[in-house]
Design goal:
- InterPro entries: GH (IPR017853), Glyco_hydro_5 (IPR001547), MAN-like (IPR045053).
- Its EC number is 3.2.1.78.
- This is mannan endo-1,4-beta-mannosidase.
- This protein is 38% helix and 15% strand.
- The protein is built from 12 helices and 15 strands.
- Helix 5 crosses helix 6 and helix 10 runs parallel beside helix 11.
């Protein structure tokens, strides 16, 4: 139940109540997947969808003056599918599936560094065909009214990441001893900055919109799961975050920016280390509160993987950890950082020996309920993104976390219900002094 303030205009509140009731009764439409075999034509245009740039207002997001809450998903390999004509239609299918479940934000890689099929073949050398694949991903997201978080590189070796940048540095004659030199070597940092500049200034060949002007992009992410284990103090990573955040904002001040870290607490908050999943997490070189206090970082992120961080054999502990992990981060985002909190990855692997769809549903419900509890009291939780959504016929890419909505009706129902709830909150709540959403 909600109480609304101020309350002088009875007709206004009656209208709001009617609209909210309509939202809850609308069933999720089933949208058929349209597989389009696009060629890379410069004049290919997409249907225009009225999107506004998402902005941060205090510890909440807004779009077009209205609250914006996130029920989203990850599908990191969309660009790789888009570059191949035989699989390009799966990109469209992924967005159609997501839209049918009411999902509003997707997270995917906007990088592929070195190796076969790379976007960035070598420093500042790009494959235009792969870039057009990224253009296509963004244009299809726009067509399905889904916004994107675009990650700019990887902590891990998959798709190149920081290890590839260090390899390029070594090949040029630099003396580098660790992949974590990515965070401190001036030349390597220059490679990364050049990539940022190229991506942000890119003009989409399907929409003719520069990336830095496109409201389809919800936010930029500096690095997927950034860690700097070579420096447990966290100083090296912190300096890198501050430098890169200011650099991104100097090119693109309009879009939101986040780091991409997993949410581990570090040396700056010893009283919070108790919430880390293990002692190793506190030595990863990341520092949740300190990192997210950096100028230019608009919102906080964390991931949730109890099956790899805690134990694969005691599901009960997974839920207990999930609840305490989420609550500590929501509290810190609200009371310390004053920023929105987005859980950008969460999942339970089918490779877990105790995995059942029923337990996965229970886990997803726990994540969703923690977010709803925060929303009801006006807290910092802004939403979550499931790891990860798969279209049918892509099982060969499954990392154990695949959720195919058409094959898992119970999970699909939970996801769709959360989408409706988030839409209802967006309809009922406003931060513009007209209406305040509070818990009774």
């Amino acid at each position: 139940m909600f109480s609304f303030f101020p309350s002088p205009l009875q007709q206004f509140f009656l209208t709001v109540a009617i609209l909210a009731s309509l939202v809850t009764t609308i069933s999720t439409a089933t949208i058929s997947s349209v597989v389009t075999n696009h060629s890379w034509r410069e004049d290919d245009q997409v249907d225009e969808v009225g999107m506004e740039m998402v902005v941060r207002i205090g510890n909440h997001f807004e779009a077009g003056g209205r609250p914006f809450y996130v029920n989203g998903f990850n599908t990191y390999w969309l660009m790789a599918l888009a570059v191949d004509p035989s699989t390009r239609g799966k990109v469209t299918e992924t967005f159609a599936d997501a839209s049918s479940a009411g999902l509003t934000v997707g997270r995917t890689w906007a990088f592929s560094d070195g190796g076969q099929g790379a976007l960035q073949i070598s420093p500042s050398v790009y494959d235009e065909n792969v870039f057009k694949a990224l253009d296509f991903v963004i244009s299809e997201a726009k067509r399905h009214n889904i916004r994107l978080i675009l990650s700019l590189t990887n902590n891990w070796k998959d798709y190149g990441g920081k290890a590839q940048y260090v390899k390029w540095g070594k090949a040029s004659g630099l003396t580098l001893t660790s992949d974590d030199d990515f965070f401190s070597d001036p030349t390597v940092k220059g490679y990364y900055k050049a990539y940022i500049k190229t991506v942000l200034n890119r003009v989409n060949t399907f929409t003719n919109i520069p990336y830095k002007e496109d409201p389809t992009i919800f936010a930029w992410e500096l690095m997927n799961e950034a860690r700097c284990q070579a420096d447990p103090s966290g100083n090296k990573l912190q300096s890198w975050i501050e430098e890169m955040a200011l650099y991104v904002k100097s090119i693109d001040p309009k879009h939101l920016l986040e780091i991409g870290i997993e949410g581990f607490y570090g040396p700056s908050t010893p009283n919070r280390l108790q919430f880390d999943p293990n002692t190793f997490a506190g030595q990863a070189g990341t520092d949740f509160i300190r990192n997210h206090g950096a100028p230019g970082i608009d919102f906080a992120t964390a991931h949730i993987y109890p099956d790899t961080w805690i134990s694969s054999s005691i599901p009960g502990d997974h839920l207990q950890f999930t609840n305490s992990w989420m609550q500590s981060h929501i509290d810190d985002a609200e009371n310390v950082l004053g920023k929105p909190m987005l859980f950008t990855e969460f999942g339970e692997s089918m490779k877990d020996g105790n995995f059942t769809v029923g337990f996965r549903d229970q886990f997803i419900n726990a994540v969703y309920n923690n977010i709803l509890n925060s929303l009801r009291r006006g807290g910092s939780a802004a939403g979550s993104l499931l790891w990860q959504l798969f279209p049918e016929g892509t099982d060969y890419m499954d990392d154990g976390y695949a959720v195919v909505l058409a094959k898992s009706k119970s999970t699909s129902s939970i996801i769709s219900m959360q989408s409706r709830r988030m839409q209802m909150f967006s309809s009922r709540c406003s931060w513009s002094r007209k209406l305040i959403c509070r818990r009774n």
